[in-house]
Design brief:
Number of strands: 16
Distance between the termini: 34 Å
Oligomer: single chain
Protein name: Lycopene cyclase family protein
CATH class of the domain at 2-60 and 83-152 and 255-300: Alpha Beta
Radius of gyration: 21 Å
Pfam family, one: Lycopene_cycl
Largest sheet: 7 strands, mixed
Strand order of the largest sheet: 6-5-12-13-14-11-15
Strand content: 25-35%
Length: 395
C-alpha cells in the first residue's frame, strides 16, 4: 500500500507528487491518463513570483514589465518588481517533475485511466484501467484526486473565462519580448461580460496571442479564430503571420464552494478543490502553495487540504463577479482603472492572496464603490443554485 496516491498528471497532480516526495514521503504513485482522448493537449500556465522558484527549469519565458490597455487605447505599463511574470508549458514541466520522481525510491508514475476513488477501512482506493486494458486497484493511506468535478457546486454567480490562443510567427519583428500584455480591451465587447486580448512575446517575431472572454457561454472554435484574426490584423496590425499551434480552454470563475475533502482519506486538489482564483482564473501559484501545505501535513501524519484562498479574498471576488455578471460595473473600465490607480506590484500581491486588510481596503476604494456596496449588500440574501459546467485547462 502506498503512502499516497495522486490522481491526475496536470499541474495540481504533478506539483503535489513533487512536494510529497521532496519532503520525505515515500511510496507515492502518480496516476496519469494514457495517450488518447483523456490526455489533455499541451497547455500553458502563467503566474508571477519573486525570485527563482521551485520549477524555474520549466519556465520557457518571463517578463519584468506588464501592460494593460484600455478600450480607448490608453496604456498602463509597470515593472512590478520584485515580481516577475512567468510562463510554463505543460510538456517541459511534466518532463522536469517526471525526472525528479524517477530519482526517488518508492515513487512511480502509472499510465492508467482512473474510474473511481473511494474511502475504505484502511485508507483510500483508486480503481483504474491501464493502457493495456488491465484492471487495477491502487491502495494508499491517502488519495488526492485532481480530476475535474462534474458540474459546478451550488453558487450565486458562475462566469466562464474561455479563450483560444495562437502561437504566431510574424514576417517582421512586431513584439517587445520584455513586456507582457495582460489585458488589451481594444477588441469588440460581447453583450454580456467582457473580452480582451492577451499577448505573451517569446521573441521579436514570436508570441502567444489569445482572445479571452469572461461570459456565461464558450464560443465555437470558428468564432474564436475570427476574433483572433480581427485582433492580430486590425488591432495589433501584425502583418503576415503563421500560426504554429493553438490552445483553447475554459476556466470557472465562480463563488461556489468546492469540497476539498470527500472522506477520511480522500481529498480533491487543484481546480477540483477550489484552487482557481475566482476573480482571475489563475491557478498555478495557488496549486504550488496548496501542494506544499499538503505535503507538510502528510509529513506530520495529519493530512489536510487547506483552503487555497483566504476568506476575505473569496468574499471580494464574489462581489466582483456578481457586479460584472449583473452589468453594474463596466468590465473593461473596471480592470483598466484598477491597474491605473493601484500600484501593479500591490495589485498582483492582492490577486495572489498576499495583501494586508489595509491594502485591500485601499484597493476596494479604487473600485466603483456604489455598485460594489450594493452588490455586497445583496449577496447574503441570494440563494446558491446548482447549474453550469466545470472548467478545464487553468492558466
Amino acid at each position: 500500500m502506498d503512502d499516497a496516491v495522486v490522481v491526475g498528471g496536470g499541474a495540481a497532480g504533478l506539483c503535489l507528487a513533487h512536494w510529497l516526495t521532496s519532503t520525505g514521503t515515500t511510496g507515492v504513485t502518480l496516476v496519469e491518463a494514457p495517450e488518447g482522448p483523456l490526455r489533455p493537449a499541451e497547455r500553458t500556465w502563467c503566474y508571477w513570483e519573486e525570485g527563482p522558484g521551485e520549477f524555474e527549469e520549466a519556465v520557457v519565458a518571463s517578463w519584468r514589465r506588464l501592460r494593460v490597455r484600455g478600450a480607448d487605447g490608453r496604456v498602463v505599463e509597470s515593472e512590478p518588481a520584485p515580481l516577475r511574470y512567468r510562463m510554463v508549458r505543460s510538456e517541459p514541466f511534466e518532463r522536469l517533475v517526471h525526472a525528479r520522481l524517477a530519482a526517488v525510491p518508492g515513487a512511480r508514475i502509472l499510465r492508467a485511466t482512473a474510474h473511481a476513488v473511494r474511502d475504505t477501512a484502511y485508507g483510500g482506493e483508486v480503481r483504474c484501467t491501464t493502457a493495456e486494458g488491465r484492471q487495477l486497484t491502487l491502495r494508499g493511506r491517502y488519495v488526492f484526486d485532481s480530476r475535474p468535478v462534474r458540474g459546478t457546486p451550488p453558487h450565486r454567480t458562475l462566469l466562464l473565462q474561455h479563450f483560444r490562443g495562437w502561437f504566431v510567427r510574424t514576417a517582421a519583428a512586431r513584439f517587445d519580448p520584455g513586456v507582457a500584455e495582460l489585458m488589451d480591451f481594444r477588441v469588440p465587447q460581447p453583450r454580456h461580460g467582457l473580452a480582451f486580448g492577451y499577448v505573451l512575446p517569446l521573441a521579436p517575431d514570436r508570441a502567444l496571442v489569445e482572445y479571452t472572454e469572461f461570459s456565461r457561454t464558450p464560443l465555437t472554435t470558428a468564432a474564436y479564430d475570427s476574433a483572433l484574426r480581427h485582433y492580430t490584423t486590425e488591432v495589433l496590425r501584425l502583418g503576415p503571420l503563421a500560426v504554429d499551434s493553438a490552445e483553447q480552454g475554459v476556466i470557472p470563475m465562480t463563488d461556489a464552494r468546492f469540497a476539498r475533502r470527500t472522506g477520511p482519506a480522500t481529498f480533491r486538489i487543484g481546480t477540483a478543490g477550489g484552487a482557481t482564483r475566482p476573480a482571475t482564473g489563475y491557478t498555478f501559484a495557488a496549486v504550488q502553495r496548496q501542494s506544499r501545505a499538503i505535503a507538510a501535513a502528510v509529513r506530520r501524519g495529519r493530512p489536510e487540504v487547506p483552503p487555497p484562498h483566504g476568506r476575505r479574498a473569496l468574499a471580494m471576488d464574489a462581489v466582483m463577479l456578481r457586479a460584472l455578471d449583473t452589468g453594474r460595473v463596466d468590465g473593461p473600465r473596471f480592470f483598466t482603472e484598477l491597474f491605473r490607480r493601484v500600484p501593479m506590484e500591490r495589485l498582483l500581491r492582492f490577486l495572489d492572496g498576499g495583501s494586508t486588510p489595509w491594502e485591500e481596503l485601499g484597493i476596494g476604494l479604487r473600485t466603483p464603490v456604489g455598485p460594489m456596496l450594493r452588490t455586497a449588500a445583496e449577496l447574503p440574501f441570494l440563494a446558491r443554485r446548482s447549474a453550469g459546467r466545470p472548467g478545464e485547462n487553468p492558466r
